[in-house]
Amino acid sequence: MNNPFLELGIRHDIVNAITELGFENPTPIQNQSIPVLLTGSNDFVGLAQTGTGKTAAFGLPLLELLDFEENYPQALILCPTRELCLQITNDLKNYSKNMQNVNVVAVYGGASISDQLRQIKRGVQIVVATPGRMLDIINRKAIDFSQVQFVVLDEADEMLNMGFQEDIDSILSTTPEDKKTWLFSATMPSEVRRISKKYMTDPFELTMGEKNTGNANIEHEYYIVRARDKYAAFKRIVDFNPEIFGIVFCRTKIETQEIAESLVKDGYNADSLHGDLSQQQRDRVMKRYRERGLQLLIATDVAARGIDVNDVTHVINYSLPDEIENYTHRSGRTARAGKTGVSIAIVNSKEIGKIRQIERVIGKKFIKAEIPTGFDVCEKQLFGLIHKVHNVEVNEQQIEQYLPRIMDEFADLSKEDIIKRFASIEFNSFLEYYKNAPDLNVTEDTRFTRDGAQGERPSRSGSNADFTRLFINLGSVDGFTRGDLLGYFCNQTNIVGRTIGKIDIKGVYSFLEVANGDVDQAFNAFKSAQYKGREVRIEVSAEGDRDRGGDRGGFGGGGYKKREGGSGYGGGGNRREGGNSNRGSERKEGGGFRDFSGKRREDRGERRKRY
Ligand code: AMP
């Protein structure tokens, strides 16, 4: 039987290699672009999400078209991040593993340039590069692009978002006029449209799905909660999805770190990925995540760019992105390679408008979902456990020697008692934690949760609602008192002191509240500010929401802890477990929880149907 890749015109030794990678049938973008690109005579614009098989869509034709008897740069692939750069390089090496003399080099920042220069000197046909480092190497006159035939701009929208426009211009000016340019982008903002006009003549355009829309396999859901309940709601969603393998997006580095720390304290397997980490630290986090050593990766938009991990089940927008376009990039981290995935937004009632805006951009409606009740979570976890016990593989040989003693221990218990006890070992902690858990959902058009608690605070003049809480990386270790910081800040920004709200001095950082209307002025003033030779950084603090909420359960280490060691039930195999039921239910949520007698089922009606 003919392999469909052979029919598309890909040679046997490449087809054999990709078959080993599990490529049986071309993805839609491969089906449509490979025949066009194999002609080698078109410029090309492909609008496609990440995870659709883009790399092979351009990579396989490149391997067919280049002359590997020659050892000079013939193709240049530019992409936005180091992760993507390594991924593409690795993919190309895998596709070409049965071919002779194929040399691919990865050129990216944050790694030794001399190694890269050495590899280039040895001879290379395909260069995969991030723009900054590529330009550096060009400026050192260490590479000659005068015979490049193909340039691929991968994730063009991301490269422009990251401000690489000028670098790309400079790099492309060193390549021949008559080269062919292939551009791939998940979205088509006007900037991308402009560069496609600038660099291409009459390109062949291919749109997979609708322009600017997300992947059809992603279900988009939003949950409305009070700002102060956000973390508790987030944990419920995670507990309700014990098999979750997710990426959680935050807006700032601080928020990223705080959420990750709180989750770790609460016993979840989570870590953060953000720009303040060294490359080595980031690599370590990514390695753990890829290998499923982490269940939740908490990331900023920039840090998560180019992450290519298959089987991500959920993307959670803990905070919605400032730039609506970023929502598409975030959600594209799930549902890769034809799989399905869920993208969740946890919002407060003031943010509904943003959800509607996103719907317009992705061309798809969000489903309004309900935060599971404590009962829902407990039930899900319990049956997850039961299912696992039922399906566990028993090592008959190993266990046999212990059986007589085990039977002896249980001699006085009935089968029912034994089952109840096994289930309770893990389950008690969930019961305890979710005892009295309130309904956290807020209806769309009121400021009240459905169990009557007050929702969003009304905005009063002079209340915190008019202020933005800013983080600044100066604090008591720099010798600042509240008065000093006020003076320094006002001097720097020209903002009048009496408009500044609360100031909290911490060790190496502090927080201060600034009138919303002054935030831009503050950011402008600190653009390149230094204090005693050190860069001064301000950010909008993620704590803003939380502080205003008053009694917010669970954040910052309260809440239920899972056990250390061992593997959890209900799919939480990645979480920390062990010890016994010391899962402090410091967190008391009011009302709502009932026992498992079944009495409650009928009055949960509608809400349950989502699950
Ligand atoms: P990409 O969009 O190139 O990042 O690809 C996303 C994922 O899909 C990668 O893990 C690829 O290995 C995988 N993939 C690409 N093409 C195919 C295919 N034809 N069949 C199966 N998996 C594929």
TrEMBL record:
GO terms for molecular function: hydrolase activity; RNA helicase activity. Belongs to the DEAD box helicase family. Its EC number is 3.6.4.13. CDD domains: DEADc, RRM_DbpA, SF2_C_DEAD. Residues 540-551, 574-611 have a biased composition (Basic and acidic residues). PROSITE patterns: DEAD_ATP_HELICASE (PS00039), HELICASE_ATP_BIND_1 (PS51192), HELICASE_CTER (PS51194), Q_MOTIF (PS51195). Residues 35-206 form the Helicase ATP-binding domain. Residues 236-386 form the Helicase C-terminal domain. Residues 540-611 are annotated as: Disordered. A motif (Q motif) lies at residues 3-31. Keywords: ATP-binding, Helicase, Hydrolase, Nucleotide-binding. Residues 3-31 form the DEAD-box RNA helicase Q domain. It comes from Mucilaginibacter terrae. The keyword Ribosomal protein does not apply. This is RNA helicase.
